[in-house]
Amino acid sequence: MSKQYETVIGLEVHVELATKTKIFCACTTQFGGAPNTHTCPVCTGMPGSLPVLNKKVVEYAMAVGLATNCEITRMNKFDRKNYFYPDNPQNYQISQLYLPICRNGHVDIETPAGTKAIGIHEIHMEEDAGKLIHDEWEDVSLVDYNRSGVPLIEIVSEPDMRSADEVIAYLEKLRLIIQYLGASDCKLQEGSMRADVNLSVREVGATEFGTRTEMKNLNSFKAIARAIEGERARQIELIEEGKQVIQETRRWDDNKEYSYAMRSKEDAQDYRYFPDPDLVPVMISQEWIDEIKAKQPELRSEKLVRYKEQYKIPDYDAQIITESKHMADIFEATCELGAAPKKVSNWLMVETMRLLKENEMEADDIKFSPKNLAALIKLTEDGTVNSSVAKEVFEKIFAEDIDPDKYVEEHGLKTVNDEGALRETIEKVIADNPQSVEDYRNGKEKAIGFLVGQTMKAMKGKANPGKVNQILKELL
């Protein structure tokens, strides 16, 4: 009988905050830019330069803490984490060890077994390091300090997750909360959200944790899921062979689907943390906490409840629309302009999703305005354009946000509702297709579809299909 194993997973999630400037200086946090152009004496660690805390960083950290049910540490302070690494200009990183800003929170995730609370041990503020760029040609490493001093929060979970599915559900939940708060865009591919996975396995029923490893270099949800499966299998194989799992940091190679040991944690250096002498403690008053609470936007879970009651749209629609705050905003604004909620959700879920996929875009990249979507819905409801013309117009709206009324007028796309003209065309179609007429009269219902198609073709797609059907049946 083979042994059953359980995976125990905890995450450390780093999130780059959406501030305009860095955490301790006035340099821009913009992504990109020529190497070392977004820098100053503070973020390059020049002797004698002094850090000054960016207030917005504290407010974003508090907002994320409140949205994840954390206690806010009323007096928190910064510590120096000392280690030598070329991309770390001061030879220490300013972080929070002893008194992090948020503690003891949780987020709820949905699993096949029901709702599960994932504990959040703490959230602390810190600065990002620079970036090493390896030049293969010259065989040297170059340092770019643009990212050095970009504000981060690190969200440390409890070891409460048991599978890759739970990990992804937790990350999705965190990402949506943070995006809704506007605290970060959480783009994994740009590194504004990064997750390190701490994983161990133990026999089912065991109370002690196994030896854990930490995996880095995970920049997509798919890579995280693959890394978890790969590391779980690797550890079980070692245990089955009677070998020891070594506590170490490993680097996941997504192309090879394998992880490599980077450094052992057994002899890991002690970071010699001590309170940063250049920064005063951060004192947070109850008034400040209340002010942040009052500014918290409606989060996704609250939107889902409201959409059901206010807009009466199905759960499935609400789930998809609220997966992006930007799309949810477009939905609400279009409904406010008088469009029927279900019609709006259909355009977003079918045509919008299709075009996003075809253009390899994210929902956050949608450029069209609610005003033009509402105008198009009105044109279809009034019967001014038929559904196939509406789709063609929508593609223009999606690409260039054109005014649908003007576009339909200028391109002569209005539906022909003139019964005389329609009858004339239909009579000609009947005369030209005796075989289909014969088939229809012999009980082949499908034959009428062909005649409708021929009529639409003759009318250049600008007829009302319902009306065409009605006249055809009457004439036949």
Automatic annotation (TrEMBL):
Record flagged with keyword Acyltransferase: no
Single GO molecular function: asparaginyl-tRNA synthase (glutamine-hydrolyzing) activity
Keywords from the UniProt entry: ATP-binding, Ligase, Nucleotide-binding, Protein biosynthesis, Transferase
Record-annotated Asn/Gln amidotransferase domain positions: 329-476
Reaction(s) the record says it catalyses: L-aspartyl-tRNA(Asn) + L-glutamine + ATP + H2O = L-asparaginyl-tRNA(Asn) + L-glutamate + ADP + phosphate + 2 H(+); L-glutamyl-tRNA(Gln) + L-glutamine + ATP + H2O = L-glutaminyl-tRNA(Gln) + L-glutamate + ADP + phosphate + H(+)
The organism's place on the tree of life at top rank: Bacteria
SUPFAM superfamilies linked: GatB/YqeY motif, Glutamine synthetase/guanido kinase
GO biological process: glutaminyl-tRNAGln biosynthesis via transamidation; translation
The UniProt record lists the keyword NAD: no
EC number, as in UniProt: 6.3.5.-
EC category: ligase
A family per Pfam: GatB_N
Subunit architecture: Heterotrimer of A, B and C subunits.
PANTHER family reported in the protein's UniProt record: GLUTAMYL-TRNA GLN AMIDOTRANSFERASE SUBUNIT B MITOCHONDRIAL AND PROKARYOTIC PET112-RELATED (PTHR11659), GLUTAMYL-TRNA(GLN) AMIDOTRANSFERASE SUBUNIT B, MITOCHONDRIAL (PTHR11659:SF0)
Function in brief: Allows the formation of correctly charged Asn-tRNA(Asn) or Gln-tRNA(Gln) through the transamidation of misacylated Asp-tRNA(Asn) or Glu-tRNA(Gln) in organisms which lack either or both of asparaginyl-tRNA or glutaminyl-tRNA synthetases. The reaction takes place in the presence of glutamine and ATP through an activated phospho-Asp-tRNA(Asn) or phospho-Glu-tRNA(Gln).
Protein family according to the UniProt entry: Belongs to the GatB/GatE family. GatB subfamily.
Name this protein carries in UniProt: Aspartyl/glutamyl-tRNA(Asn/Gln) amidotransferase subunit B
Organism: Eubacterium oxidoreducens
